[in-house]
Amino acid sequence: MDSNVPPTPTGYARVVLPIGGADASVAVSITVCDESGQQYVLRTTTPNAAPYCYFLAYGVYRVVALEDCTAQSNWGALTVGTIFEVTGGGYISLNYIGTISTPSIVQASGTDDNVPPSKVGYNIMKVYGIETNGGGVLVDSDKKEYGIFNYTGHIGGAHYFYIKPGTYTIKSLSATNGNYIYLEYGNVRQPLSAGRTFTVPASFFSIVFSKKAL
């Protein structure tokens, strides 16, 4: 918890809200109401940040809503409708149960002939050039755009990308010298161009920029 938290006001209790069950930047909340019906939304920070704390006035509260989470506390498990009484400080730990959105394409660490390790849920796509460099934009089924390129500081380099299985639309693809572009897997090589779609092969594959027809 942040060391700059102010002193707890008289008549209030400090309640800390850590978050668990998430490996991405998410924030969740619990909504409670007091005996007068006034509602308060208590929201967590993201997992890698210090947890928020709130000052709740002493009294009886009822849980009104939980946003994509379950809640455990020093008052026990909290579900919608649970009534609990605040008489002193405590915690409400919110465990994220929603779906974490992950990108369809992620640039990997490898370049040229340094193939990166496999990544669960992704295939490996090599983007390389033959006597040229190139790049472009792929669009996934959710209409999200991802840039790809092969430039590594010299002509004909290679970059690697982790890519989720699925079908992608080519928004743009172009090479700096020549404009022959292919999808390559196994012994198969098929031309690619803007507007076309392709389905990620079941194994390692490449997008190739070439100065000459292959």
Summarize the structure.
The chain is an all-beta fold. The chain has strands at 12-17, 19-20, 29-33, 39-43, 52-57, 59-67, 69-73, 76-78, 83-86, 90-96, 105-111, 123-130, 134-139, 145-149, 158-163, 167-175, 180-185, 188-191, 197-199, 205-210.
Care to describe what's here?
This protein is mostly beta strands. The model has no long low-confidence stretch (mean pLDDT 89). It contains no helices and 20 strands. The protein folds into two domains: 12-96, Immunoglobulin-like, CATH 2.60.40; 105-210, Immunoglobulin-like (Sandwich), CATH 2.60.40. The protein has strands spanning 12-17, 19-20, 29-33, 39-43, 52-57, 59-67, 69-73, 76-78, 83-86, 90-96, 105-111, 123-130, 134-139, 145-149, 158-163, 167-175, 180-185, 188-191, 197-199, 205-210. The strands form four sheets. Strands 1, 2, 5, 7, 8 and 10 form a six-stranded mixed beta sheet that branches. It has a six-stranded mixed beta sheet with strand order 11-15-12-20-17-18, with no helix packed on it. Helices cover 0% and strands 52% of the residues.
* General form: elongated
CATH class type of the largest domain:
Mainly Beta
- Structurally, the number of domains stands at 2
Uncertain segments? none
Helix-strand pattern = EEEEEEEEEEEEEEEEEEEE
- Radius of gyration, Cα only, in angstroms? 26 Å
Helical fraction equals: under 10%
Question: Which structural class do the helices and strands define?
Answer: mainly beta
CATH topology descriptor of the largest domain:
Immunoglobulin-like
State the major sheet: 6 strands, mixed
Distance between the termini: 60 Å
What is the overall pLDDT average?
Answer: 89
The CATH architecture name of the largest domain reads Sandwich
Strand content: over 45%
Number of distinct helices: 0
Give the number of DSSP strands: 20
